[in-house]
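Batch 3, record 17
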Amino acid sequence: MVSVADTEPIARGRFARWFRRSEAAQGYALMSPALLVLIIGIAVPLIILVVMSMWTRDGFGFDMTPTIANYQRAATEPIFGTLLTRSFFVSGLATFFTVLLCYPMAYYVAFHVHRNKMLWIVLMTLPFWTSYLLRVFAWRVILGYEGVINSAFLSVGWIEAPLEFLLYSQTAVIITLAHAWAAFAILPLYVSLEKIDKSLLEAATDLGDGPFKRFMRITLPLSMPGVISACFLIFIPTTGDYITPALLGGPDGVMIGNLIQLQFGPVNNWPMGSALSIVLMAWIAALALVFLFLTRKAKDHLA
Amino acid sequence: MDVIDQLNAVKNGNLSRRAFQKSLLGLGIGMMTTPFTASRAAAQDGQGTLFTWGGYDVPELYTNYEAANGALPDFAVFGGAEDALTRMRSGFVVDVAHPCHTDMVRWVQTGLFQPIDTSRLSNWGDVLPELVALEGNQAEGGRPWMVPFDWGGTSITYRTDLVEIEGEESWDILWDERYAGRIGMLASGGDAWWCAAIKAGVPFDQIATEMAFEKTSAALREQRPLVRVYTDDTTTLGQALSSGEMVAAMTWNSTAVELQYEEIPVRFAQPKEGALTWVCGLMMHKDAPNPDRAYDIIDSMLSAEAGEFKIGSYGNGHSNGKSFEKFTDEELQGLGLSANPRDILDAGQFSIPQEQEWESRMNETYELIKAGF
Amino acid sequence: MKDGTYIQQPNRGLQVYAIVFLIVLYLPVLFIPLFSFNDSIYVRFPMQGFTFNWYVDLWTRDTVWAALKNSLTVGLWVSVISTGLGGVAARAITRYRMPGQSAIITLAMLPLIVPGVIFGVALLVLVSRLGIPLSLYTVGFGHLIICLPFAIATLLPRFEGFDRSMEEASADLGETGWWTFWRVTFPMVAPGIVASLLLTFTISFDEFIMTFFLSGTDTTLPIYIWTQLRFPREFPAVLALSTIILALSFVMVFVALWVGRLGVVSDQVQATIEGN
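Prediction for the assembled complex:
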């Protein structure tokens, strides 16, 4: 492989020559604005968060002596564990259904649409240009006591009284989250499926593979990065979501995101809120690693 | 390529995709830059800023301000007094803020506010004195920290056709097992806790005791299985009551008013133990950038015109006694108010401002109970 | 197997699925326009009567239009900047071997793991310590932090699968880096870029939680909508506005695509001539 540096016009000075040879330097230079934003916008606030999680609430201010009391509370009081588990369960189901249901759609657009692909992509994302809040409200209209589903079932005679579990329940939250985050599944799945080299599939056909085999051996493994992206893009933010559970979850649908938000609001315990956030982040990271490990295993197994 | 050429090109099918994308880019950039300059100009104009509850940014409350200053004040909105305090403590500076009386004491303690010079308010003379003389509202020189603006009750709105009342109306309606799964509660502790305390028979002056916490918590835990949803969203409560999904809910006046307007058979209860009364008002930030405009805002909100709008449209009481004059007795009764505001104020129970520690603990306990623990 | 290559066999089942999917996707969203014509402040199923009142009423509410403009402005800026930074980052990561690469990716993805409320508060504290007043700029910065991971996540797979030999061929033929990027790299990653732009704009336009903490007096549309939810009287006006936005988005998109289609043929011809 011919290095680009050798065919470049004369490099000026020794630094320039080192710069051109060092991939790392070039890479970082390229990334520097992004890196700056990341550090100021992410690293610094998170450091503040970690520091604050070791403080204690004291009237309006904070008692700044470092303590792990908040973490101890998070580990021992039952509410935190229950809500964490519930959040992962709800998000997990929502992620699973979303990715499962969006995959065929992304597949269709990537492989079966030959003209106007852009149109399809945009069509799939347009609904998400309405406000999230209003879409949640729309689901309330559908799932509500006098909502679409209940009215329809009542008029047809399938039920005698409106179904109450449809709204203000975990079910409602799962359905709404799945619908609300569909765009975040479709786009990565599509991007990943789109770049699969069609010639690979043609070659497989020529070599005698049936459609199912082709899918399992080529399409699915090659689209795994997209699937993983989609899963992360949906699972992770939804575990911390507090709007949908607040509007549709009812008393039994409270999730960890609500609890964290409340620590910064009426409960006024910022250190506890910070500690809970870090605990949540740690758990998500752990789950993500497990997930990556499993998918890699599956991928190796398939190939 | 200028616009005419482009349109011609489109017509003739000559516009290449690249050229179109270039023009989209130009449009996008144009869009991105103009509004910034526009809003910068507006900011320099220096209208007063009002930090208030959602839904209070309607022009009818600020007609006098608009007449004097040519535009409406700038609004910043909060969802709850705690959120508001959080933001202000983090450095958000406004001219005027709109807390309620239980928040006032704690807000004063933060040192972020200044007393109000009532001599600069033309409508001050008509303000009901009971609303001003709340505990903790006296700064030095007899000036108040908070100028009262609106007041009302937290009580039960219930469907007269679906709920059986034996004897007098009472808070027990919300604890009635016959209506399990059809009861609504407010999510904010600031209302719910106190009402539960009333139900549990806890006198307000003892609300900071352990006994009070135990009794109120017990009452709320007992109620939880009966509650369909805890929310501060009046839309939700109103709709649920109108559809029959809920038969009774803890609400403010406005919900009952709106439902009655829609001709749903509801009543805003006057429970025998007493409803909860609240007063909200205006406080001025100590670093207010536009103090003159701040006084204009406050004065405008105190005017009888604003008051009439408040009473008529929201069903809340107003601090200016003159605002009640335009309404008949029946109208006011239907709203849960009275031509003699003092009657309502006497019959209700004002919550007593507590320390920040108590507030935080109360909220934390209520959140635990709501989540089922 | 039948004639023709794999991808050209239309799959009936899949087609039906796609149509049903779109219907289910749009149905909840279509309730918004439906109830904007409802003659009642309550959103209840069956509709009460048909009226245009809310649209007329909407016209007089200046605050609504201001909020909309703010949302659009912030959204456009944020989507462009985050896609730009994200693309650059994705390219740097895939093209160059950089030590600490996975640490950077992890850092970039952190906003996805942390609930928006946390970032909102943490950034609020940071910004106030630095003495920066709350404004649309702070809101934009907050959005940027959230959108950057999405941009990178969308673009990384695209850059990853990218065939570098094309770039090297172009370099071998003597083209400068910039030209290579623009004419070789860019068209191949363009779908990823478009996806990223769409995704980040959508996120920013609809972002509520962080915005709530970081906004000053200029509100964005989601904040405005949320403030209206407490007072049902205002609610249908909000529905009307959302309907207008939805309709406008449709129109804009179809126009863009229709015009785009006109250019496709000439573009392809151009490309062939240039011997790409």
